[in-house]
Amino acid sequence: MSALSSQDDEDTFKILIATDIHLGYLEKDPVRGNDTFVTFNEILEQAQKNEVDFVLLGGDLFHDNKPSRKTIHSCLESLRKYCMGDRPIHFEILSDQAVNFQYSKFPWVNYQDGNLNISIPIFSIHGNHDDPTGADALCALDILSCAGLVNHFGRSASVEKIDISPILLRKGGTKIALYGLGAIPDERLYRMFVNKQVTMLRPKEDEDSWFNLFVIHQNRSKHGATNYIPEQFLDDFINLVVWGHEHECKIAPVPNEQQNFYVSQPGSAVVTSLSPGEAVKKHIGLLHVKGKKMKMHKIALETVRTFYMEDVVLADHPDLFNPDNPKVTQAIQAFCMEKVEMMLDNAERERLGNPRQPEKPLIRLRVDYTGGFEPFSIFRFSQKYVDKVANPKDIIHFFRRREQKAKNGSNINFGDLVSRPVSDGMTLRVEDLVKQYFQTAEKKVQLSLLTERGMGEAVQEFVDKEEKDAIEELVKFQLEKTQRFLKERHIDAVEEKIDEEVRKFRECRRKNAEEEDEEVREAMTRARAHRSEDAVLVSASSDEELMDTGAKASGDSDDDLPATVTRGRGRGRGRARGARGQNSTVRGSSRRGRGNTSQESATSSRTYKSVPAKNKSIMDAFKSLKTEPFQNSSKSFSEDIIDDDSDLEDIRITPSSKVNQRFSTTSSFSKRGSQSQTTSRGVDFESDEDDPFQSAMTSRRNR
């Protein structure tokens, strides 16, 4: 750090960047249970050691949407240990914090709270693992935000239009516009970008004086036609994009020649899958920003469990393995044991001199047994390494390449086939399986009233979010909508006409994707509200049972004191649960004086409540004379990413003229749509030995 210490002055921002920490991953595993907590402590320790201005997290701080008490407790313990203290904060916030943190009950940055003593602020967006869910749309980061330990930003509740308002930061003469966008389903966000419904707001004055930093958590690599976010969708005035969600570490900023910005992909801080991307050494980044210049310094994580991976193709060793040999399986097993032992030796040599690293490494040997070979017993093989590796149950992974028949009927050339493990293939989602099933099913089991898209989304919600009433509420909602349609058309109560109109209405809905998305959202809102009501009713009914039991017991014996105590507890608990649903008065505004500026902030709370309507059959709908209006529709989407192994670290960015953009350093903004056309910026590169904060750039490059 001695080389970087000379760069520390009153005009330089020092930002620690990390993504995808996944606290709580395999927390019940006796060997790997504490890996995420140890690495998180190392990250915060590096922030304290380097005296950074703030920590920037790119989503997925937690692995589970509903983290356990152990995970929450360990996270709070680490944040309180490393992020609280008397060290002064040297930067100020110029933007309207009531807008930046509008979904928080305390809409101001935590270090300006007079009741807290924050030495290292943490700014974080949410990821797809810890995204807001439930009737109140809360996530684990909202708990940390309410506790004053994390500043949760980049949240958008609208599914029709997204306006990204930056947090404007200033330290000396350096100004940073920090943009953030929490995880949104990739297909939905892709569609919103295409329809130009994503707008990034910018200050109206001194537009070229701001360093624009954008944090996003989406798919960067292409997983489908719209299941990712192309880099070209992002605005070209951005200087640096910190991309979360992708776990392969590519933290060195890579230029995007088309948009003239740089992309840094820090990757995950812990191994969550035994894949090639996770085998890359884990790093976090120390970003220095001065004016429009930046430098990314990579910091290797020392507490990450070592992971070694190797592929073996048995067909490539004809001199060792003959499929016709009756003892070929024993030979393959001995060969695999030799490979595993070599990887263990490499892991031991790498761990020497580093006592903080876990002793047992992760080992993965992928064996392609195409060509008539047979796999041996994995469980028996794993027993030999229980005390040596952290993942004994899945050391070996057998797979076969897809064998394609030659069109001319000639012999198949296995050497021309592409090796593709099952684990590396495209993962089918639940809604895709539902859609495929109904598309290929017989006519008698096809859906005639519901749509495959809506049913697939409901099943996905049931599987991912455990919304047990999702499918039932979707069926009710679509049935009610069809009934209203038939009543408005005044169809005679003839079965043939009804069936025909229902089919027409269903086909119309299938073509309107936005209306389908709106139906799913409405049904999910109903399901969450229904779940909340059921919880209250169950607690109330259980309390009534306790009261009845108490009454009967007291009737049998006057001296039965426990019955009386049980009844009293039942009443108290019932009232307490009922009170949870009531809204409480929230602090409207406040002034916090620990920072350099004081902000007046207003809180904004959102409540989602929907009451399920009573369901009727289609024929019963004709008995009712009243009609109900249709509900408006909206839309949904998703995400993606791209990788580069370029190791550029020292980067300078010079400002350039823009077209029709004016800014101010306060809460006044101008809207700028995605993919707008502007004059390109000049870009220059420096070697690692050069000081990134000296001579200004002179070269320019026009698009």
UniProtKB/TrEMBL annotation:
Q: Which UniProt keywords are present, listed alphabetically?
A: Chromosome, DNA damage, DNA repair, Endonuclease, Exonuclease, Hydrolase, Manganese, Meiosis, Metal-binding, Nuclease, Nucleus, Telomere
Q: Which residues are named in the active-site annotation?
A: H129
Q: Care to name a GO molecular-function term for this sequence? A: 3'-5'-DNA exonuclease activity
Cofactor(s) annotated in UniProt: Mn(2+)
**Region: Disordered, residue numbers:** 510-703
Stretches of Polar residues bias are at: 599-608, 654-681
**For bias kind Basic and acidic residues, which ranges apply?**
521-534
Q: Which residues form a coiled coil?
A: none
Q: Which GO terms describe its biological process?
A: cell population proliferation; DNA double-strand break processing; DNA strand resection involved in replication fork processing; double-strand break repair via homologous recombination; double-strand break repair via nonhomologous end joining; homologous chromosome pairing at meiosis; meiotic DNA double-strand break formation; mitochondrial double-strand break repair via homologous recombination
Which regions are flagged for Basic residues bias?
568-578
A Pfam family recorded for this sequence: Metallophos
Q: Please give the InterPro entries that the UniProt record associates with this protein.
A: Calcineurin-like_PHP, Metallo-depent_PP-like, Mre11, Mre11_capping_dom, Mre11_DNA-bd, Mre11_N
Where located?
A: Chromosome, Telomere; Nucleus
Q: Which residues form the Mre11 DNA-binding domain?
A: 294-462
GO cellular-component term (any): BRCA1-C complex
Low complexity compositional bias, start-end: 579-588
The record's similarity note reads: Belongs to the MRE11/RAD32 family.
Tell me the PANTHER family matching this sequence.
DOUBLE-STRAND BREAK REPAIR PROTEIN MRE11
Q: What does this protein do?
A: Core component of the MRN complex, which plays a central role in double-strand break (DSB) repair, DNA recombination, maintenance of telomere integrity and meiosis. The MRN complex is involved in the repair of DNA double-strand breaks (DSBs) via homologous recombination (HR), an error-free mechanism which primarily occurs during S and G2 phases. The complex (1) mediates the end resection of damaged DNA, which generates proper single-stranded DNA, a key initial steps in HR, and is (2) required for the recruitment of other repair factors and efficient activation of ATM and ATR upon DNA damage.
Q: What is this protein called?
A: Double-strand break repair protein
